[in-house]
Amino acid sequence: MRTVVLSLFCSLHVLSGTANSPGCTSNNPYNILLNYYCKTSESGGDYIGTISRTISGRTCQSWEVQYPHKHHFEDELPGSAAAHRNYCRNPSNKMSGGPWCFTTDPSVEWEYCNVPMCQYDCLYTKKGREYIGSMSKTKSGRTCQRWDSQTPHVIPAALTSRFSGPFSCHENFCRNTANASRPWCYTTDPEVKMEFCDIDFCNKK
């Protein structure tokens, strides 16, 4: 399944929007992972997950085939239609009701899929590289240092360069752009350089 995400990475414009700074788009390169689990808008044009059943439980028809229902949407999917298999999608973001698919039931042409809205204040994965929430305290209760600040700790440019757009948009929120075991941050305590953050998993909320 991971190959599906990688093959579509360059084709999708990932939406987010947790930062409050003026002019921020908050497009973290890792946000592509968030779109694997949920949709960030009602229409869900950014969804690239593997849900392949409709809201009524019908199996989705593969986008690369024309049976039992003929269509032209294979040309409207980013990348190749084969890469999307029979997963729920919203080609060109045309359907306001969210991701959908043609069904394998000859009597039912298409249906919407039950793709959940993204939650930004929790983790979908153990490492939490997809996390773009606003937690700004470490597990011990220390306040996080802003990513665009160099005091009290110097933050390497190689690390902040992993944020696309102004890294100031991420303020002092816990993040995991360094492939650590979970989201973390530099702290404002001169004696403690960094700590992990205590963030719940979405399925526990």
From TrEMBL:
**Signal sequence segment:** 1-19
Q: List the disulfide bonds.
A: C174-C197
InterPro entries in UniProt = Kringle, Kringle-like, Kringle_CS, Kringle_sf, Serine_protease_kringle
Q: Which UniProt keywords apply?
A: Disulfide bond, Kringle, Signal
Q: Where is the Kringle domain?
A: 43-118, 124-202
| Entry-linked Pfam families | Kringle
- Tell me what this protein is called: Plasminogen-like
UniProt source species: Crassostrea virginica
The gene for this chain is LOC111102781
